[in-house]
Write a structure and sequence with these properties.
The protein is α+β, with helices and mostly antiparallel strands. It has one domain: Nuclear Transport Factor 2, Chain: A (Roll). Helices cover about 40% and strands about 35% of the residues. It has a six-stranded mixed β-sheet with strand order 2-1-6-5-4-3, covered by helices on one side. The radius of gyration is 20 Å and the shape is globular.
């Protein structure tokens, strides 16, 4: 066998080994992927990391957020609103999600409905949410958030 043949076999073998070891995002259970992302959101929020929390939102001007002030659009607007409402770690408190419903609506869409609680020294806030998660550029992100 020639040196070129050996190199081709080695490259093919390495490619097969690498692809077998790397999970394909399409093979990951969408419900589990969304639950994991929401767990990471809780961790980021509870560590005072709003930017980390926001990494689960679609970084796009078409992101829709509906809250107590009404509808707003855009990732940056949503980040700015969070920073205005929760200027420091004390105001952010400790966040807990309770997902009541997770429904896979298609290969690239998951709907989540549940309740959130925010525990702070001065008070406890609570409400409900419905989220649309979509697979965008191989990442599960929130494209619509209705939190009350």
């Amino acid at each position: 066998m020639t040196k070129i043949g050996v190199v081709c076999i080695l490259i093919t073998a390495c490619s097969l080994l690498f692809s077998a070891c790397t999970p394909d995002v399409e093979q990951i259970n969408p419900i589990e992927a969304v639950e994991t992302a929401m767990q990471q959101q809780e961790i980021d929020w509870n560590n005072g990391n709003i930017e980390g929390f926001m990494s689960s939102y679609w970084n796009n001007e078409d992101l829709i957020f509906i809250g107590r002030r009404g509808l707003s659009k855009g990732w940056q607007t949503t980040l700015d609103n969070y920073k205005k409402s929760y200027p420091d770690k004390e105001q952010m408190g400790r966040l807990m999600f309770q997902n009541d419903t997770l429904i896979q609506m298609g290969a690239e869409v998951v709907f989540v409905a549940g309740r959130w609680s925010l525990f702070r020294k001065a008070d406890t806030l609570a409400g409900a949410y419905s989220l649309t998660w979509e697979l965008k550029n191989r990442n599960w992100v929130i494209t619509t958030d209705h939190s009350s």
